[in-house]
Design brief:
By secondary structure, the protein is α/β, with parallel strands linked by helices. It contains 4 helices and 6 strands. The longest helix is centred in the last third of the chain and has 15 residues.
Length: about 150
């Protein structure tokens, strides 16, 4: 993965499948080179990243994400448990969460739910990740940025 560049928006991918994470990283770096791309392998690391604990305390290397892409089927803490943690911690910061679920049917986007500090977009994409998936997620992020605050 490329180096973190201060001042750029950051995407945090929470995905336990290393192959899917690699493909997603390549897709986002090709589609959105202006973003920092970070990746964690489970829900516990996602919570640590969001709360700035342990190695994630260095916000120069691990900036708070503007966009988090969350796989729901995670080991240790599930995606649903990560969402519950986010909802219970409104002080962490404002960001968009795109929930990924593997599916036989591909839909571009589904429901957007705003809970004050976090907007959750439920989306379904066929795996493995692709540049088209990255473009769709970035389109949702752009729409979210333009929403009235």
């Amino acid at each position: 993965m490329k180096a973190t560049i201060p001042g750029r928006p950051t995407i945090l991918l929470v995905e336990d499948d290393e192959g899917d994470a690699y493909l997603a990283g390549r897709a986002f770096m090709a589609t959105a080179p202006e973003f920092n791309f970070k990746y964690v392998v489970n829900g516990v690391k996602a919570v640590a990243y969001l709360s700035g604990e342990g190695i994630y305390a260095d916000r120069t290397l691990y900036p708070f994400p503007n966009l988090m892409i969350l796989d729901m089927k995670l080991p240790i803490l599930t995606g649903a448990e990560v969402l519950a943690w986010i909802k219970a911690h409104p002080d962490i910061g404002r960001f968009l969460v795109v929930i990924l679920t593997g599916s036989q049917m591909q839909r571009k986007t589904s429901i957007m739910e705003t809970l004050g500090h976090v907007t959750i977009c439920h989306a379904e994409f066929l795996k493995p990740p692709s540049p088209q998936m990255a473009e769709t997620i970035l389109g949702v992020f752009e729409q979210w940025q333009n929403l009235p605050r």
